[in-house]
Every structure is written in structure tokens, then in C-alpha cells.
Amino acid sequence: MGSGGSTCPISAEGPAGVEQHLEARGGRLPSTLWAQRGLRKLYLSGAGLRDVPAELASLRHLRTLALDGNELMEVPESLCQLPCLAYLYLGRNGLQGLPPAFSHLQSLRCLWLEGNFMGRFPHALLALPGLRSLQMGDNRLARLPSCLPRMVGLQGLWLYGNRFQHFPPVLLRMAQLRILDLDRNHIACFPDLRCLVGLCLLSYDHNPVRQPPCVADTVQLVGSGAVEYMEAREEWLRDQQHLEEEEAEGTGRIPQDDGSPLLDDTP
Q1: How far apart are the first and last CA of the chain?
Q2: Is 224 exposed, middle or buried (0-12, 13-18, 19+ CB in 10 A)?
Q3: CA nearest neighbour of 140 among 168, 114, 102, 174
Q4: Cα–Cα distance measured from residue 249 to residue 259, given in angstroms and rounded to the nearest whole number
Q5: pTM recorded for the entire structure
Q6: What pLDDT is recorded for position 1?
Q7: If phi over 0 gives left and psi between -120 and 50 gives alpha, with beta otherwise, what is residue 213?
Q8: Given a cut of 60, is residue 259 above it in pLDDT?
């Protein structure tokens, strides 16, 4: 990849929603691409790219950019100059960090960084309070910064396949989290997570835990013992409901369902 005459299909979409199919040859993008200033989406996945031309910054209306599966060792500065960028795929490259200018991407809502070589949580992300979904699985993280709660918009956090020896305590202050994935780490003990009042889904599979984490009754669990735990919990909840119904029959009061969903939507 990244050399020779091999070609890779790429696609782009303009403001009218019309998709164009182009080709990257030998890790080089067609020069005609940069003349299309109105592009909204650009998919360059697996194109053998080792860098991205500075002309990328001219695509000021770009909202979705896919650069996953390339050979990028650094995030290009031109990428940090896209004011409308909301969805960014940078997974499966050779990234070890993010540049300070990455914090300029204030429109960013969903970011994929899985399968890179990041040993530290990128400081630039802390300046993106509007980021809703962060995928950092299969990196080299062992801890999270104490100021992570600055990311007040973060609802989905994927940290599977990292190097956590303990549950990161800062996550206990992230009450807005709805999805948390800690699969394939080295966490032997989880604290009481009922303080995470927004949590809908917790995945903890392939950690050396002896029993499922303690969570609120509305949280779906994925991991060793989770099925049995949730079945027992469901049976207990049914029993409680029956007791309430019996008590209501004795008083003439009908219990009201609060209508709370388990997981009404995802980021």
C-alpha cells in the first residue's frame, strides 16, 4: 500500500446528495477532487494514504470524512481547518496522538480513533464539549485524565481492548454517559455504578471480574454472567410489580407506568 500503481475506489457526495465514484492511484488522490468545494461527504477509507494534501482545507462544507484504514502517522493540519466537520473516521492508522489544532473542530460530534497506538488520552479532545460519541477501542490507554468531565456532551465511550488495570474513577463523574464499553481490559473489580444515572448499556466482557457490576435496573449488561444477572433482575422486578398490583387492588389504586425506556436511541 501507498506505492506502485494500485488503485482504490473512493467516493464523494455533494450538496444535492449525488454520489461520485473516483479512484486513488498509488496512494495519490485525483486533483479534480479539490475543485469540488461544495462536498459534504468524502470517503477515503483504505486508499493507501500516508498524508493528505493541504487542499483538503478548501472543502469548507465537509461534514463527513473517512480516512480509516490508511497509513497516516499524524493527523494533517488541513483536516483541523474544516469548520463543519461532524463525523470523522480515523481508525486503523498509525496515530499516536492528535495535534493541538484538533480542538478547532468545534462542530465534531462523532469520532472514530480505534486501532491506533495512543498511549495517552488526547488533550485536544477535552476542548470539544459537543463531542457525543468517541470510539477509542484497541489503543494503548491505561488511564483517563481527571478533567474528562469537561466533555459534557459525551454520551457514548468505547474503550475496549486497551490497558486499563482498574476501572477509571473519573468515569463516575460522567453521569451523562449512556453507552460505556470496557471489553477486553484487565479490570478485576467494578465500583457501584448506580451513580451513572444516564447509563443504558455497559459492556465489560473479557475482563477478570467474578460477578457483574452493580448498575441501575434499567441498564443492559454485556459480559460474563450478565444474562443470568439480568434474568434474575427481571424476575425480581416482575415480582415487585405483582406485589404492587396486589396492594393496588386492595386500595383501589392502579399503579402508573413511568414509561422509562431502556435505550430509546444511541449516539
Answers
A1: 33
A2: middle
A3: 114
A4: 21
A5: 0.85
A6: 38
A7: beta
A8: no
